[in-house]
Amino acid sequence: MTLREKVRTELSGSAIPFIAFGIALNLTVGQITIALKIPLYLDSIGTILVAVLVGPYAGIITGSFANLMAAAFGNPTMMFFIPVVIVIGAFTGFLANIGWFKRWYLCVLGGILQGILAAIVSAPISSYLFGGTMMAGTDALVYFFRAMGNNILTSVFYQGLTSDPVDKTVSYLIVFFLVKNLPLRLVSKFKGASNVVS
Amino acid sequence: MRLAIPDKLSFVLLAWTCAFLLPWQFNIPFIVLLVLLAFTFNPFKPVTASARTYFSRFTIYAILLVFVLVGVNGLLLREGPVRFRFIVLDFYDAGLTYGLTVSVRLILLSLSVLVFFASTHFQDFAKYLQSLGLPRSFVSIILLSMFFLEQLPHRITQVFTAQEARGAPVRAGIVARSRAFFLILSPLVLSSIVESVERGVALELRGYHLLRTNKDIRQDQPTSRVWRFAFLTLSSIIIILSVIHWLSN
Amino acid sequence: MALELAISEFSFQYWKDSPRALTNVSLTIAPGSVCALLGPTNSGKTTLLHAITGILGSHHRDAIASGQIRVGDDAFTPLPDRVLFPTVGLTLQDPYYQISGLCDTVVEEISLTLETLDIHGSDIPSRVMALLDKLGLSHLAHRKPSTLSGGELQRVALANILVAQPPILLLDEPSNSLDGTSLRRFASIVCGLKGSTTMVVADYQLELAILTADQFVIMDGGKIIFSGDRVQFIGNLSRFRALLPVGLLEQTLRSIPDSTLRKRIMMTIGIR
Ligand SMILES: Nc1ncnc2c1ncn2[C@@H]1O[C@H](COP(=O)(O)OP(=O)(O)OP(=O)(O)O)[C@@H](O)[C@H]1O
Ligand SMILES: [Mg+2]
Q1: Is the N end or the C end of chain B the one with fewer CB atoms within 10 Å?
Q2: With 50 as the cut, is the pLDDT of residue B146 above it?
């Protein structure tokens, strides 16, 4: 199958409105985490949900469009992290395709791997473009690692390792239980139904 | 005077070229120019009320960014002479320069993107992409997500109040709050998935074919290509000069 | 041009272990007439309509189906596996979802249907406006679709489909969001389409059916338990007391004290 055909099969049926929902969810989930004072971003939940229920290409589209729209609606720096969300969409879709979203412990393992991968991809961006300063509480950790004698890239990567695996594991588990609670009749409407039910 | 989307995009490209290739001293005037344009020059003025608020938020962000980046790196990057001393803190030259370089580059990169999107309706941008050959389903995704974006915050508030009324521990410990997060997300996702499925069916029932491209979308007015030509030429000149400069070192 | 719709011995199961949603459904609807498909919830009305449109066949590839569905001269055994729009048009049970969410005005929303069918031309705006006029929607032409009320949405959803002039039109519970006045207006729209369009109106209420239908079909548990014309239907009404809100209709009619007025009303809605 050519790439175009693969994308076409993923984008049929309910996928289009669902991807749109995933994008909107990525962009609004912060509203809930802030209101509940949850110390995680969880802003890939929409991408992960779509990647699991539809597939990797749909996940890539969800993530990159969400960041593009975040940039368009007042957060231009989100634009630079599009490579990271592409990796998240692709890797999650891959894990779902090999059945890792059927068991909660595989989700934990997958979340940790995903977190490490995200830390690897985002470190060069955060260090080169942002000098390791994201203007967030986590910057303190970056400065700590730097004061210990590491260079910026390494420090940013270490900091990513302390937060990304937690964030992604929690996101993976949330998506796992969300999907598990969905009626079979709904799940069966999606291309990735076989990713989550046997 | 009008600038079409491709003109503005070439301007962003010019800004990015400068951001990556020119030293920070050159880029500060560019940033000032961008700010001036956004406030005085029609094609770059924000098109919606919310777009105007992006600028005040970004200004605060940018100012803090410069202070933190310059300050922290001045302290941590201990190379070259000490530029100045603040009580017991020594600020080193190399760190200060690095902080300035990074913050000016980042501000120019982001500000140009911000100005572009603030001065362009996102729908127009989507239609422009479509006229370049982006499949129509992608454009539909963009338009539909704007539809969901309008509805979701409202629905979140609704579910939130409903859960609070049922006694979801919104003001309790972290475990209870995580549970509350799930209790809010779950009905939201369920109803939105139902809605996605129904909307998908409805679109199909109207003969909506997927991944077809519409290249024949008319641009509203043919505009002159002078501007994009100028911006692109300028970018190329900067790139060539930088390469020459780099080779001669 | 209206087409004949014929369904013969059609059975359908969503998947292997689920109960049959439809069992041996046979039904022929003459070109240009209106068939009321009545039945309580879960009786299989939506399933049957979705089967005719092709959406069921294209979405549920591992469903179990048998029989035949014939649309005009095209016979599908057992059911169409692609969406037959614009030959067959369907308005959904919930009109809110039939608004695409892609458009800023009602006119654009309706034109979107033509656009997806690759129908272009300078007469499109006037064609859309004429249709809006016919449906009594002209005043909404430039409103944002997501801000409309239920009854308005119902008619815009109908316009979305009608603009393509489908020879077969299926309406899934159109009276859900209609009150007395708008119901009668909707009924007159349906009657106005008779002759040029073959229509199926699925409903669990009787009003719209009585006001519009030539043929009455009652379903229960996925089976057709009655099929007949208006006279036969009215004559047998009391049999379906348990399935349909029959009492309500009788009550309304009987509560009219003036016997001449009662007769006149019964005449206008076609009960002799
Ligand atoms: N997607 C589906 N997957 C599995 N079973 C389904 C599905 N949709 C409907 N059913 C089942 O098929 C049967 C018929 O349902 P259908 O929706 O056609 O009834 P209906 O007459 O339209 O009811 P209502 O008046 O509530 O709309 C029901 O038992 C229902 O549970
Ligand atoms: Mg139904």
Answers
A1: C
A2: yes
